[in-house]
Amino acid sequence: MKLYYSPGACSLSPHIVLRELGLPFEPVLASTKTHKLLDGTDYYTINPKGYVPLLELDDGQRLTEGPAIVQYLADQAPAKSLVAPAGTMARYRQIEWLNFVSTELHKSYSPLFNPAMPEEGKEVYRQRLKTRYAYLNEQLEGKSYLMGETFSVPDAYLFTVTNWAPRVGVDITDRANVQAFMARVAARPAVQEAMKSEGLLK
Ligand SMILES: N[C@@H](CCC(=O)N[C@@H](CS)C(=O)NCC(=O)O)C(=O)O
Which atom of ligand 1 is nearest to the CA of 30? Predict the structure, then answer.
């Protein structure tokens, strides 16, 4: 498999999942600014949507959208329990969290990286994110991970987007459960490996 990624972008989530699962893959750098690969290939010819992540399967099929990719990957190695079996209530809870991270967090961070967004608009998104993190902080009370004591795919996604908070002025340092979650996930060997390989850690 090939994972098209950009360092520190939302593609870190499937990157973490691949390393947690121990599945072999080739990382392929795709610039989110120039939309080119290192060899000059126009990334739009690979993903017409232009964004990362994209997973290319060994049979050449291409899968996009982070929440779909992480579920696909985790389903390839069910013994690792990174996702609950399809049809169980636990699976729907994980989908519920993936959707929350995608629509309420990820897409509220996106305008904060957009130089065309006026500061006033950015402040609206910062405040919205702070409200969502207040909820998350309550949800993480007494838990190690979103689903309880077991790390699963939404945790990789939540970790990835929450890592952006200090870069874009979202102050959640007072959210102790969220901070503890971040430290706990950051300490996982697969997460360290993924971050090192993307140049995010020395
Ligand atoms: N809906 C997509 C959004 C992916 C996305 O926002 N990717 C960003 C990086 S975090 C990107 O590649 N942006 C560059 C672009 O849109 O051209 C998903 O959930 O996978």
Answer: 12
pLDDT per residue over 42-68, tens digit each? 999 999 999 999 999 999 999 999 999
Cis omega before residue 27 (within 30°)? Answer: no
99 and 113 in contact (C-beta within 8 Å)? Answer: no
Handedness of CA 30, 33, 113, 104 (dihedral sign): negative
Q: Are strands 62-64 and 54-56 parallel, antiparallel or unpaired?
A: antiparallel
pTM recorded for the entire structure:
0.98
* Residue 186 contacts residue 192 (beta carbons within 8 Å): yes
95: which 2 tokens? 């989908």
Whole-number Å distance, alpha carbon 33 to ligand 1 midpoint, is 11
Amino acid identity of residue 19, one-letter, is R
Long-range contacts of 105-114, Cβ-Cβ distance < 8 Å, separation of 24 or more: 105/129, 105/132, 105/158, 105/161, 105/162, 106/10, 106/66, 106/157, 106/161, 108/132, 109/161, 109/164, 109/168, 109/170, 112/164, 112/168, 112/169, 112/170, 113/164, 113/168
pLDDT of residue 202 exceeding 90, the answer is no
Report the nearest-CA residue for atom 2 of ligand 1.
65
